[in-house]
Write a structure and sequence with these properties.
5 strands, three-stranded mixed beta sheet, 24 helices, 558 residues, mainly alpha
Length: 558
Amino acid sequence: MTPQQKRTPSAIDKIAEDWVDTLVTLEPTVGTYIGRSEANDRFADYSPAGLDSERDALTTARSALRAQRPVDDVDAVTQEDLGRELDLALETLDAGLPLRSLNVIESPSQEIREAFDLMPTDTVDDWSTVSARLSRVPEAIDGYVETLRLGIDQGITPARRQVFEVADQARKVAASDGFFTAFAASASPATGELPSALVADLRERAERAAAAYGRLAGFLTDELAGAATERDAIGRDLYALTSRQFLGATIDLDETYEWGIEELARMVDEQESIARQIVPGVTVLEAIAHLDNDESRKLHGTDALRTWMQATSDKAVAELARSHFDIPDEIKTIECMIAPTQEGGIYYTGPTDDFSRPGRMWWSVPEGVTEFDTWRELTTVYHEGVPGHHLQIGQAVYNRGILNSWRRLLAGTSGHAEGWALYAERLMEQLGYLDDPADRLGMLDGQRMRAARVVLDIGVHLEKQRPDGAGPWTAEYAFDFMSRNVNMNEGFVRFEVNRYLGWPGQAPSYKVGQRIWEQLRDDAAARQGGDFDIKDFHSRALALGGVGLDTLRSALAC
């Protein structure tokens, strides 16, 4: 890929750039994520006053955007997609969702702690900034509690299940050997020793940050739990809103639920066929048991896991760059990391705008998990790396000559990003990287899980009839259903289902996003006939950067 020709920024680009600046000011952790350091010493105002400031900023940006006319196709995409995001953010405020923002994976409780994971720590100045942000943890937590209290007053509260789960997380953070204590104790810049006064500040502020999380845990169990709802389901109207947030598209929820049931059955049939290729005449569970006992496919310890992740990623980048993709040098580096938490999950964080911090694949290994099976996880490396998230997000960052910083760094949805990553998994199968039936079974294990999540998530939050016809969905049935459709330990299943119950609409966006990506490819192939080139389709689609899936559909139809 050659460097992109530089485009003259437009008035719409200016609005988008200003919106990034506004977000960094209002939500400093966004700045940390994209490598902007000017607000790294601060947090967002999580109080109701902060929500008012957010509303004012959203309204101002939306009015400015609506007043402009696009000068080219790039502008048209920016106006459509940024307008969609601003509208959805205002709808979210109107619906009161921030007043009940509490779940096990993506709410202020996690965001405040996770802000430190991506902060630079190479120099004394870096650690001084860390110390300043640590000092503001209590204020951030207090503002968050104030907002949750407003939710109590207005009768807008999260589910009780989420309250108790997050309280447990907060207690772990608050412990004497919790994150903040360990983080402060690890302070050791590459440039030399820290001044003793800074070391003392870090330790004192880490203690206060931990104490703030202790107060949060107490508030959750002593105050919010009593007002929280017993009902896990968020209901159809709010679910439709959150679904649009995560997809950037409006879908027929009832049709998608039925499709999910059919897709799950198809995944099961495909798994059963491949299981018989591994060991003739066996069931899927028997094939899995056979693979789980194969020491040649097993890793022991997180050091071995990280080494294998890195080697697999590096090999994929090198080979695909030679044969299947045009990958710029800036994107050829990806760092594989073991996350400092033990909550479960694998995730990707994009590179900074100047690539000074490369894209990173993180594995949050649950406590007590020490063995890992490569046949299960090979497809995950492709999902998070190349041709998955790293290629997708890194290419958008690389394309800075055409795309404004909002389009490069912040635009897009889970449906676009995760849908592409699942699409990429299937692409790697087609390219021959999963020719080993065991690796294909691992890919299908993940695809089956994603299909099950479509059924579970829509089913439980819309309280639809269960697939077995035995009444409406409940949380208890959700745990049982998930256990029967994934081959993971009980702790993983528990975390995953609690995630779906507390973060409605997010989990289905993966498989639904893949469905939409495949529909768009097939639509393009049908329109172009013999002129269709799959590599050109991918290049054109990824050149747009992150967008909502409705925006992607309209852009590719041109």
